[in-house]
Specification:
The chain is α+β, with helices and mostly antiparallel strands and about 270 residues long. The chain contains five helices and 15 strands. It folds into two domains: about 140 residues, Roll (Nuclear Transport Factor 2, Chain: A), CATH 3.10.450.50; about 80 residues, Lipocalin (Beta Barrel). The longest helix is centred in the N-terminal third of the chain and has 21 residues.
């Protein structure tokens, strides 16, 4: 069975959906490679029946999260299960079950499978599925998506979930439109090293960045001084100012790590 942390919005306004990391024991069983296929394309005797069974069980577990039903999780979890959620928290079975509780008053949530793919090899099945979550958070509707990879193994008592890894599907933030003078004030030449530089120009509602030998890139404003590249939600380009408010450079930030660029003299705007 797969384990996933119950949605716990009393602790945070963000979705907290746990997952199970692929367990080492299952990986030992898997020798060689196998094709990843959509649920309707899995080959092998009995594959369709396995697909139907595990998809149905997976949806029961999703329902158990929003209903706070720990019993259904207890039924399908392997005793040796490991869990790694999207916040890099690792749990065993006891900790997983302790997380399954009803949502607090004022919250109504649903989780349902969107995309479901499976590969079966002997007594092991690897499933990857993308799930939609809807949460009525005190009258405000929140929508999220999660990519889960599950490892099931067949026991004398039936299929049991041995491991799962969870990823939050990142999305671009909303963009804002800056006035023309503010947008174009970022234009100029910025250097990473003595031999690596990029030129920034303003175009309509965005910044266009050119670097020798590479395709141009576009950036939209999230707020003043903070830009993002569409379809790259993990990163931000943050412009830096001195005490007088003058732009001195920018940092390319991926999570907590920054790469610093310095603005060069003679910039327009």
């Amino acid at each position: 069975m797969r384990a996933r942390k119950q949605l716990n919005y009393s602790k945070t306004h963000q979705t907290c959906l746990s997952a199970l990391v692929l367990a080492a024991a299952a990986l030992v069983v898997l020798n060689g490679r196998w094709p990843v296929a959509r649920a309707t394309e899995v080959a092998g005797g009995g594959a369709s029946a396995v697909t139907s069974e595990l998809r149905h069980t997976t949806q029961l577990l999703l329902d158990g999260i929003t209903n706070g039903d720990a019993a259904v999780w207890n039924k399908w979890l392997d005793p040796a299960v490991l869990q790694v959620d999207e916040n890099d928290i690792v749990r065993g079975k006891a900790d997983i079950l302790a997380e399954i509780k009803p949502l607090p008053p004022g919250l109504v949530g649903h989780l349902y499978i969107d995309d479901f793919r499976i590969a079966v090899r002997g007594n092991v099945a690897v499933v990857t599925h993308e799930d939609n979550e809807t949460l009525d958070y005190h009258g405000q509707m929140l929508l999220s998506r999660f990519r889960m990879t599950d490892t099931w193994h067949k026991t004398p008592d039936g299929w049991r979930l041995l491991g799962e890894q969870s990823l939050a599907v990142l999305q671009d933030p909303p963009s804002v439109t800056l006035d023309r003078p503010t947008l174009c004030s970022y234009a100029g030449r910025y250097a990473l090293t003595d031999t690596i530089a990029a030129t920034v120009r303003c175009a309509e509602d965005r910044l266009v960045v050119a670097r020798e030998g590479q395709p141009e890139r576009t950036f939209l404003a999230e707020v003043k001084d903070v830009f993002f590249e569409p379809s790259h939600p993990r990163t931000r380009r943050i412009f830096v100012r001195d005490d007088g408010g003058r732009i001195t450079g920018f940092v390319d930030r991926r999570e907590a790590r920054d790469v610093r660029w310095v603005r060069q003299p003679g910039n327009p705007g």
